[in-house]
Every structure is written in structure tokens, then in C-alpha cells.
Amino acid sequence: MYKIARENLTALFQKIAADQELYLPVRTADQVNFGVWTEDADVDLDTLKSVKSPKDVFFPQSETLYTCIRDGKKLKVEPEALKEQDFVVFGMKACDLKGVEVLDRVFLSDPVDSFYAARRDHGTIVSMACHEPEETCFCKVFGVDAADPQADVATWMIGDDLYWKPETEKGQKLTENLADLLEKAEDAGSEAAVGEEQEKIRTIIEKLPYSNLSLEGWNGDVLMEKFESPVWEKLYKPCLACGTCTFVCPTCQCYDIKDYDTGHGVQRYRCWDSCMYSDFTMMAHGNNRTSQKERFRQRFMHKLVYFPANNDGMYSCVGCGRCVEKCPAALNIVKVVKAFQEEEV
Amino acid sequence: MSECTCHKNYKLDTLIPQVGVITDIREETPDVKTFRVNAPEGGKLFEHMPGQCAMLCAPGISEGMFSITSSPTNKEYQEFSIKKCGMLTDYLHSLEVGDEITVRGPYGNHFPVEDELLGKNLLFIAGGIGLAPLRSVINYVLDNRENYGTVDIVYGSRSADDLVQLKEIQEVWMKKEGVNVYLTIDREQEGWDGHVGFVPNYVKELGFDVNKTALVCGPPIMIKFTLAGLEELGFSREQVYTTLELRMKCGVGKCGRCNIGSKYVCKDGPVFRCDEVDEMPDEY
Amino acid sequence: MQEIVNRAKELLADGTVKRVLGWKAGDLPYNPEPAYFEKEEDFEDFVYNGFCGANLSKYMIEASKLEGKTLVFLKPCDTYSFQQLLKEHRVDRDKAYIIGVGCKGKLDIEKIRGLGIKGIESIEGAEIEDEAETLKIQTFYGEKTCAYKDAMLERCHVCKGKDHMIYDEQIGESKETKDADRFAEVEKIEAMSPEEKFAFFQKELSKCIRCNACRNVCPACSCRKCVFDSNKFDSSQKANVDSFEEKMFHIIRAFHVAGRCTDCGECSRVCPQGIPLHLFNRKFIKDINELYGEYQAGADLEERGPLTSYQFDDAEPGIVAERR
What we know:
The structure holds three protein chains of three kinds.
Chain A: E1 2-5, H1 9-19, E2 21-28, E3 31-36, E4 62-71, E5 74-79, E6 87-92, H2 94-107, H3 114-122, E7 123-128, E8 153-158, E9 161-166, H4 169-177, E10 183-184, H5 188-207, H6 223-227, H7 231-235, H8 244-248, E11 255-261, E12 266-272, E13 282-283, E14 286-287, H9 292-310, H10 322-326, H11 333-344
Chain B: E1 18-29, E2 32-38, E3 53-58, E4 62-67, E5 78-83, H1 87-93, E6 100-107, E7 121-127, H2 131-143, E8 151-157, H3 166-171, E9 179-185, E10 195-196, H4 199-206, E11 212-217, H5 220-232, E12 240-243, E13 259-260, E14 263-264, E15 271-273, H6 274-278
Parallel strand pairs in B: 7-8, 7-11, 8-9, 9-10, 11-12
Antiparallel strand pairs in B: 1-2, 1-6, 2-5, 3-4, 3-6, 12-15, 13-14
Helix pairs in contact in B: 4-5
Chain C: H1 2-13, E1 19-24, E2 33-37, H2 59-63, E3 70-74, H3 76-87, E4 96-101, H4 109-114, E5 120-124, E6 134-139, E7 142-147, H5 154-157, E8 169-171, H6 184-190, H7 194-205, H8 213-217, H9 245-257, H10 266-270, H11 278-292, H12 317-322
Parallel strand pairs in C: 1-3, 3-4, 4-8
Antiparallel strand pairs in C: 1-2, 5-6, 6-7
């Protein structure tokens, strides 16, 4: 293990950013999101949750896939280059790491999405333990340990020091590059400090109102039973059919593919899409999800039933609680799970 | 979280299309054209299996999933029979021989011609443009005749003018030994001396023996009543295959829009056995 | 609150209304959701407190299509939206039974979080009967307090007043919460140089994630099919193809609601990225006031909107164009 004083973090970021891109939580116009580090970026390591999850580091909201150039009757397809430069993501929390595991299931399963895969390969993830978990967090429900965020490097911000523990080869390599800034912390005191911080985090997590949410009855085998439940009819009504929940979510991965006419050719790009939008499944001859009830149901059925059915029981929710914080109508996955519990009692 | 090392050898992404050139256009009906597509340097763009689909794109217009109507046994080209019914298909209908489009695929599963259908007596039932995916299997079966039992084809459409591939049906399929073709149209029409009536009713009238496996494709309402008709004749759900269609974007089960329950039509379909369809929620 | 509940139950029981549109308590101290109540026992979860900021007027578009009357609770500012919707024939007056409820300013959980208060267990002082000027907030990291005023939604600082514009009956007192000039922020931006203005909006709008929450919550955005949902429109609703487009989305939306926007502030309340979207609309309102005379959308049912009526002395287009 290593450590670095908080006041030296800027030097650390400078050093990392000297030869690769560095993404970390940055405050812009009063909101914290992951962004590229620059000298004048307002880095914010104290806000627990970025508004958007950092998934866009690997799966950007909008990315060009290829450009199609027309020359008379002839067409030419020029694929967009894959990410070739290494980069570092600093400050990802345990829930968001689990979110990447969920995305891996989608994008790295056959056929591999090479745009995503290239970014995964070139990215080194430095995680950060959740110093002060909040009431909207329920990562424990999904087996996530906010006190032990396993990534290429795991870090803990304790008082004025950041404790730094490389956990993979990539993490070792990054650590070696930063050797002159990181101080060895192999002493018993350091281990104890991290242990104590972990204990503190876990104690708070135990007390959080959602930590004991039960997912009993939610798995890949209950498809018809849950699909046909009358509970959906009661639940969906306040839903505004916006995409806030899906766009802040670390695991939502639905996308659209669209054209952008540059005047010199057509750029075909993909962008995040939301199953909450009415045009999501619209076809020339109609829509198979005819009302917001069906669209609402789709989102939660996907997270708690369809995804586990296809992925060895893994849920497509990590308990980050962003939807809890951001839904304009105060709906969220926790309310869904609880409503079913009440119904089944 | 584990380190990610599983994919060091990227190939060209499945979302990147190839350029295809239109080498022939046949006007089948007033609103259906069959497009022949080749690689610009000649030859086929890819190999496929009967029932599979491909994404055709007119850059700047739109992209859509179409079933490949030619048989894999055709070694020269791929064909798509396309009905004019929206922005993309309107545009495709305006294209001429020599125009280029982009094509990616093939996507999805296929009719189980190499296993479950081997040695079986086959009953093909198609309505309208629904013949497109079945034509691929029919020609595959006819080209590998020794591997399959009897072949019965029931095909109907709104009018005699709306029957697609009529030339091939009359000149090839009807002339093959051991192949019975039954044509029908919805309403009486001058110059038509064949059967008149809806496909589901015709199937019941013909009263097929249950020693067959049925492959059904057509508009949803026709599929619904045909399946009911087959059930009346004593066919079990395991004996019937059909295809489903939903809005698609990626073709590889990742963009998230064509699922019915936990199945993605683009990846796990479009071909489903009816007992599989029964297990799905009613959202298609 | 009990008075509200009792009255609602009465109106349900005597058949005046078929259902009640109000707020249902959430599972955290601050997340009630808009909800329908149809049976007496449903009211167990009914809540009306400082966190019931959601404007229920827009839900009345759908409720107007249901059989029978819907009882809806509207705060003074919400009634402007309802009346505007009525003017635009989007809601049916005969299908609504409006109880105008009192308001002492609504709370914004984001403001509370912004004060560094996190790990919230309970909040005292948000009840509607409470005269408390301070919120007492129990957190996992100790007890915190914050002035009610400091936790209020922006719109409450420029409150349009305590009067309900339309109602069948009224329950509860309202409190004066206005302590800022409605156009002060707009004037600040007007005073900026073009470069500063551009930088300001660039910074704010670059946060936009195109979730459409602002549009979907907006009572003025009541088109059955939105222009942004058309697949024939280059600027589609889901993502920015370039950095110009996110501005277009909000500017086009502001134009579309100009003259009809009541300044209810829902767009800014729901924006997950805290973009002060109301500033666009308020700029339009300020300009309309200056060019065509004071006008408040939703304040009455008869008067024609300034952008849909022609007056002989209307400002000439040239005058409009020359303005900054």
C-alpha cells in the first residue's frame, strides 16, 4: 500500500495527465460529473455521487461509429478509429465499478462491441471508497462493498491522506509511474487506518434505510408472474416518461443508432436511448409497448428479471441510488420492489 | 472487479456495415420489390442460413432489418423482398440497379434446417410479404430435397396482384416432384380461377395431416388465426415455427429494444417454435 | 393536512369526485410522489408537506380523459398552469374539482444537499402546519439545521402570490415567501457581454443529458407529439450530435412556450443537472412585459396572449430585432 497527502493530489493528477487522459469528478456550474482533468478543472472528491454515473467514460452518451461518404452512386464506409490511447479514471465508487461489470456482460459478450472493448482495455480504474455513504445508497443489497472498491487501484481518503493500493497489473504499472509522488505505507498504522475507515463505512451502511431491502422473489424465473402483476398499473402513473433514471443509471445501456448529415457524408452515431421514451419501440406499423405502463414495466423487469435470466442471476442494478435522488416524480426501483413486497404479503 | 483481458483481438465491429451494390430489381407487386445485392467486387457479401436477417441502410435516411429471401444454396447473391411501407422502404423503392446501400449481418437464428427439420414433412404457410423469409427455407429444402419429406406450400395474399415470387412459384416450385403448392387470395378477382379465402381458413379446409412440421410467416393477425387453425387440425405447438418482428437497431441483442421478456428477437429470434412463444409475455 | 384529507374523503364518499389527485408519502423524508386516491383506505399514505412541490396541473390532461371528476389539489402557483391549460383546451373544467391548498413555500432537497447535509434520516419542520422557520435534519452524521428559506425552491423566492387563480374551494393559509426580484437574474445576464453570455449558457447547457424531464414536466409542453420526437427532425431528442444542439433544444423549447409559460418553475425543479432553465422563459416573459405590456400567463381565462393577439400599437418587428 502507498499513501499521498491530499494537498499533493494536484501534483499526482498533473503527473498522470502528463502522458494520458485523466477522467475524474469535476464540478461544472455547480454539478459534479466525471470529466477530463485540466489545470483549471474544479476537482471534487468529496461529493459522493456524480450526477451521471461514470459509465460514459466507457460508453459515451454519443459516439460516431463510422462515416459514409457518397460519390455518385458509390458509397464508402470509413469506420471510426477505436480508442488507442491509455487513460485513467480516478475516483470511481464501488457501485459504479459493479455497474461496469454489468456493462461488460452486455458489451463484451459475443459479438464483442469493439468500441467499448477498446476503451475497457485502455482504461485504468482508480477507485475510491465511499467515505460517507448516503440515505439513497443500497449497494449492499447487490453484494457491493462500498468500503472495499476493487479496481486496478483502490483508494481511501482518510483525513488528509489518500491511501493507495494497487490490485492488478495495470494498477501496478500506474503506481510505478507515480512512484516519486506516492509514499510507501506498509506500516501497521496505515493498515489500521484503512481498516478503521472500512469499519466506519460498513457501520453506516448497516444503518441506511434501504440496506436491508429484500430482493426475494426477483430472479430470472419469475417472468410471467411479475410481468402480469397488477402492481404495475398502480406504480407507473406518476411517471413523466422522461429519461432521467436511465441516463443517470450506471447500468442502463440501451442505445439508438442515428445519422448525422455533415454535408460531406453521413456520420452514423450511436447515442444513449431510453426504454421510457415512447418512440423506443415504434415501428412503421405501430408500437408493441402501447402505454407508459408497459415502458415503465420494461425498465424494472429488465433490471430484476430479464437481465438475471440471461446473466447467471446478476441483477442490472447496483444500488447507487441515483434514480432515487433524481426522478422528477420520486419514483425509483426501491419503491417498485417495496410495492411488490406489500402486494405479496 | 476483475481485470479485463478477454478481447485483445478486436475484429471489425459488427455495427460497421459493408457496401452492397444493387444488381437487379424485380417488381413483384405494386408495393413489393425484390432487390438483388452483391459485393461491389462481385460475389456474395456473406454466407447466411435460411431465416436470418440483415440490416440494410440508406445512409442519411434510415436503417432497417430485413429477412434474406434468397436461399443459402444460391452461391451468387443475396435477395431481399421489400414492401413499401415507411420512410426507409420508400427510399429503397426509389433506387436503381447500380445504386449502393450498406449491409450488415447476417443476424439472428435460423430455421433448424440442419437438425430438427431434417427428415420431416414440411408445411409452409405464408401470407403476403411473409413469404420472404420462408422462400429462403423453401429453396434450401428444394435444393437439398433428399434430406426432407413431403413439401406443402400454402400461400395467400390480398389479391392476385399481391402474390410475390409468382414466377418462381409457378415455374419452379409447382413443377418439382413431391411439392404441392396451394395459392389463395382474399377476395374474388377477375381472371383468378384459383382458391378464394383467407389463409387460415384455407389451411383448415385443406385439412393437413399432423405428420408435418409447419413453418408460418405473415402478418400478425394471419399468424394468430393460422396457429389456431393448426391447433384445430391437431398440430401441437412444438410442431409449428414462426418468425417475430420488432423494432431493431443493433441486431446483436445489445441496444435493448427488441426484447420480449428475456429474449431478443434480433439475436434469439426471429425464428421461434410456438411453444417458446407461449413462454413469452404478451408484448409483441 | 387532516382538513384536506377529510374534505377529500367527503367528496369521494358523496360521489362528487371519482378520484383524488394528490401526493403520496415516499419512503424517505423528502420524496412524496404524485398519486391517485380512489378509496378511503388509500389516504393512509396521503401527504401534503413542504416537499410536495410537484405541480399536478399537467396530470389533469390525462385525468380529463377519465370518467367522472377528479379532485385535484393545486397550490396558488399551480393554478396558473391549470388555467393556462384550460385556455388551451387541454384540460376539461367539468372534469376537475379544484381545491386550492395553502402553501408556505416548497422545499428543494437539492438545496439541502447543496448545504452539505447528507445521510438524511428525518426532517422536522417541513409539515404544512408547522410555523417553524428552521428545518431540523437528523443525519447519519449528526443533527443539522437549516433555515426553511434557504431550502426553498427558487420559484418560491419570486412567488407570484397567495391567491389561487381558479378553484372550487380553498383550504389552508398561504405564506408570503417572496424575497427576491423575479427578473434580477435575467437582468444580470442581460448586462453581460455577448462573450460572457455565451460562456454562461455554454457552461450551464453543457450539463444537459437530454433526459427530457424539463419538457415532460412542463405544463406548457402539452403537444400530443413533440417536434423533438419526430424522426424527420435532425435535432432529435436523445443526444447532442454536436455542442450546438443542446442549446437548440432548450432555445426551441423556450420559443415554443413563450407567452404561455406561467413561470411555474417545474423545469428547473426537475432538471437532474440543476440547469436554471427558468431563466430562458423568464427572459421571454420580461421581454413580453416590456414590449406588449405586463402579462402573466394563466392569470385569467379570457385575455388573449400577447403573442397570439394583434394590437395596432404592437412593437414593430424591427424594434424587437434591435434589442439585445
